[in-house]
Amino acid sequence: MAAHRVVLLFVVGVVRRGGPGTIHPAVSVRACVSGLRDTCRTIPAMTHRIAVLALDGVLPLDLGIPARVFNEARASDGSRLYSVGTCSIGGRPVRTREDFRLVVEHDESLLETADTVVIATQEPTPQLLATGTLPEDVTAVLKAIRPETRIVSLCTSAFLLAAAGLLDGLRATTHWTLCEAFAELFPGIEIDPNVLFVDNGRILTSAGGAAGIDLCLHLVRRDHGTGVAAAAARRCVAAPWREGGQAQFIEHVVPQDADRSTSATRQWALERLAEPLTLEDMAGHAHMSVRTFTRRFRQETGLSPLKWLAQRRLAHARHLLESTTLPVARIARACGFSDPVALRRQFHTYVGLSPAAYRRTHGVPGVTAGR
């Protein structure tokens, strides 16, 4: 498949293959050699092209997020899996929200060849907030993006996608302080103020600030698996996994009293994913009532204990599918799923693939795995 070349228009795209609505990331492909079913070779992936669009009023920190994350995504030989470029309308210098301007290397034609387009964070203009409309040049640029290109908005740039009609009928998010204004302007879009990002397949939106990092790492994970994403996160000194459903605003990231934290119980649970843990089990380990434990757990993680546990189990299953040849039934048991059917259901819901299909895309090359 084609790999990603990144262009900083702050818009990201992918290659569409298969039927309508099916988006496949650029990844290496394993193909059989000389017709032998169990003899496979790896076909090197091309670099996925990412274009980042910078418009006047862009937030400088957010503008640099796509290049920082995607440039750290590397293949096993150390080569980059994405190429990232930044553009502006007419290739003109861009006025940032701070007291300086930026000079970019490309004009909007960069978007025409991008696999993914990322629109960097731009606070909505008074015109956009009042009328829900965009300047003609911005509308023209967004309409010129190919229908198969993946599009990503960072933070309040979701307003741009909405005004251009790209989010009609979809679910989206943006910075929590502007979700109410967004809902009033675009009633046909389901806005969710309580998540870090929303993945609709081709169109993705993120909340403010660091959520842009989470979304970019999510794309790397979706395209190339958890191992590549985790390595990129380490190079960026970022959290390797914050699920999109996590809350935007967490009251207490670091509890004032470490003895009353749920962190020890989280570690305890991670070491027992294969066991049928209950909420009562976790609260008992923390020496708290279920009500107190649930409240403190949500304050510290932004998630309920059982949702956090389900996400950790799914993440562990993805890791085992990528890095081992264990049968799917054994992986289901190792991750605490009641049976392979439950694991498949979770994969279809949150990954969009069956475990077997995920393993074929991201698993150990050249090895036939058990089912």
TrEMBL record:
<dbReference type="InterPro" id="IPR002818">
    <property type="entry name" value="DJ-1/PfpI"/>
</dbReference>
<keyword id="KW-0804">Transcription</keyword>
<dbReference type="InterPro" id="IPR009057">
    <property type="entry name" value="Homeodomain-like_sf"/>
</dbReference>
<dbReference type="InterPro" id="IPR029062">
    <property type="entry name" value="Class_I_gatase-like"/>
</dbReference>
<dbReference type="Pfam" id="PF12833">
    <property type="entry name" value="HTH_18"/>
</dbReference>
<keyword id="KW-0805">Transcription regulation</keyword>
<feature type="domain" description="HTH araC/xylS-type">
    <location>
        <begin position="263"/>
        <end position="361"/>
    </location>
</feature>
<dbReference type="InterPro" id="IPR018060">
    <property type="entry name" value="HTH_AraC"/>
</dbReference>
<dbReference type="InterPro" id="IPR052158">
    <property type="entry name" value="INH-QAR"/>
</dbReference>
<protein>
    <submittedName>
        <fullName>Helix-turn-helix domain-containing protein</fullName>
    </submittedName>
</protein>
<dbReference type="Pfam" id="PF01965">
    <property type="entry name" value="DJ-1_PfpI"/>
</dbReference>
